[in-house]
């Protein structure tokens, strides 16, 4: 299922502009010069490929694919692959940069990368998507690998996509290379707990943020914007913790029930129809209006830029926990800060996926599987350790959580640069 929803108002800044603005603020706070900024802003490698696809009806379609490796000073590049008709190079550049900061913030031995193909999975057959995946993998084969760049699922891709990538890479190398991707099926070396890791991480941080802001979890209200592979499980984990989920949205629409949605019934409806639209036990709602509900917790878990300068002044949630990458623009961030909205940034809130991807990579290298209890305990430990460090840094420096997270991450990456030195 695509993890998308309405992308918001066209006046929203581009993801790359937001990513670069965040980086500029962090380098200034750290006292770095323009050279350091340029070094950290510039991707180390970018690959653009043409992907010829023979459709099932025999016609030929040529797609465009990208892989951007933003940084590998701390280790091999790491980042997802998305299939979406709106994929563009600047978007992939921004997402790769955010992955660099996310990995550094979580103290993982990775740099950041991202990939994308401008294809709509909803309009292509499974056989066509397999051909797209295998051709894309073949085109970027020289720059990926378990010690170079390790892709993972993202919007429009899943564990089956990763299985096709692993098989294509392995066939070309003449032996099975399990560690070339993460987010694989467990039967092919995937990690237990990986499928819901991002959602669990979001829930861990959301509960910590509620406690920190003095909001008791029992009976606290929340809304989840994006009901795909992040938002759907995040909503479930929040309910299990005692929080009332009053509204959810996907790319087609939203449903609202002030007494709390019945997620068991909703999930059966979504599995049958493919959308939350038409759910009988909730009132229909425009996805954009879900963002403006008066709730304790808002989880934007869809795509970039859904909270922007055009709607930020109408956000009434006390706490925003970013399940998606870049859901809040820089201008909107300022509006929310002035309104006293507590924003937990994406590079902290949604890092659960890359943490368990790291665990999967480690297990592949060890050829030893960890138990689900071990994976989830270590995920919780890392998420809460990062949360406390960022929160305490923010309070000590009297800055936002985003500014604190960015300065921590950027400093770690630049320290790695300086330690390694510049190759003459």
TrEMBL record:
Keywords of the record, alphabetical order, are:
Oxidoreductase
Give the highest taxon in the source lineage.
Answer: Bacteria
Example GO molecular function: oxidoreductase activity
Pfam families with a match to the protein in the record: ELFV_dehydrog (PF00208), ELFV_dehydrog_N (PF02812)
Q: Which InterPro entries match?
A: Aminoacid_DH-like_N_sf, Glu/Leu/Phe/Val/Trp_DH, Glu/Leu/Phe/Val/Trp_DH_C, Glu/Leu/Phe/Val/Trp_DH_dimer, Glu/Leu/Phe/Val_DH_AS, Glu_DH, NAD(P)-bd_dom_sf, NAD_bind_Glu_DH
Q: Which organism is it from?
A: Luethyella okanaganae
By its UniProt entry, which PANTHER family does this protein fall under?
A: GLUTAMATE DEHYDROGENASE (PTHR11606), GLUTAMATE DEHYDROGENASE 1, MITOCHONDRIAL (PTHR11606:SF13)
* Protein name (database record): Glutamate dehydrogenase
Start and end residues of each Glutamate/phenylalanine/leucine/valine/L-tryptophan dehydrogenase C-terminal domain? 191-421
Family stated for the protein in its record: Belongs to the Glu/Leu/Phe/Val dehydrogenases family.
């Amino acid at each position: 299922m695509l993890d998308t929803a309405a992308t918001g108002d066209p006046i929203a800044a581009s993801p790359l502009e937001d990513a670069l603005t965040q980086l500029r603020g962090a380098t200034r706070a750290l006292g770095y010069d323009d050279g350091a900024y340029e070094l950290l802003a510039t991707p180390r490698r970018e690959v653009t490929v043409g992907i010829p696809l023979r459709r099932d009806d025999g016609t030929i379609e040529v797609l465009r694919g990208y892989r951007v490796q933003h940084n590998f000073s701390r280790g091999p590049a790491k980042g997802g692959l998305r299939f979406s008709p709106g994929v563009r190079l600047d978007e992939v550049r921004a997402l790769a940069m955010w992955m660099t900061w996310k990995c550094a913030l979580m103290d993982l031995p990775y740099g950041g990368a991202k990939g994308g193909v401008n294809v709509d999975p909803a309009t292509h057959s499974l056989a066509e998507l397999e051909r797209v995946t295998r051709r894309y993998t073949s085109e970027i084969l020289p720059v990926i690998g378990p010690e170079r760049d390790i892709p993972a699922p993202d919007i429009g891709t899943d564990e089956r996509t990763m299985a096709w990538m692993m098989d294509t890479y392995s066939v070309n190398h003449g032996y099975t290379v399990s560690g070339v991707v993460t987010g694989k099926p467990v039967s092919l070396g995937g990690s237990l707990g990986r499928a819901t890791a991002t959602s669990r991480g979001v829930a861990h941080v959301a509960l910590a943020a509620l406690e920190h802001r003095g909001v008791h979890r029992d009976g606290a209200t929340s809304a989840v914007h994006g009901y795909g592979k992040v938002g759907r499980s995040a909503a479930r984990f929040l309910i299990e913790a005692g929080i009332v989920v009053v509204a959810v949205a996907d790319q087609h629409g939203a449903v609202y029930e002030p007494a709390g949605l019945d997620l068991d019934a909703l999930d059966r409806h979504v599995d049958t129809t493919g959308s939350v639209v038409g759910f009988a036990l909730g009132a229909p709602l425009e996805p954009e209006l879900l963002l403006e509900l008066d709730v304790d917790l808002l989880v934007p878990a869809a795509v970039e830029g859904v909270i922007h300068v055009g709607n930020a002044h109408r956000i009434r949630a006390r706490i925003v926990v970013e399940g998606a990458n870049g859901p809040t623009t820089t201008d909107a961030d300022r509006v929310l800060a002035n309104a006293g909205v507590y924003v937990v940034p994406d590079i902290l809130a949604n890092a659960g996926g890359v943490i368990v991807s790291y665990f999967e990579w480690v297990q592949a290298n060890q050829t030893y599987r960890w138990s689900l209890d071990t994976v989830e305990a270590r995920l919780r430990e890392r998420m809460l350790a990062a949360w406390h460090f960022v929160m305490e840094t923010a309070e000590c420096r009297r800055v936002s959580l985003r500014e604190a997270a960015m300065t921590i991450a950027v400093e770690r990456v630049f320290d790695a640069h300086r330690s390694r030195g510049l190759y003459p």
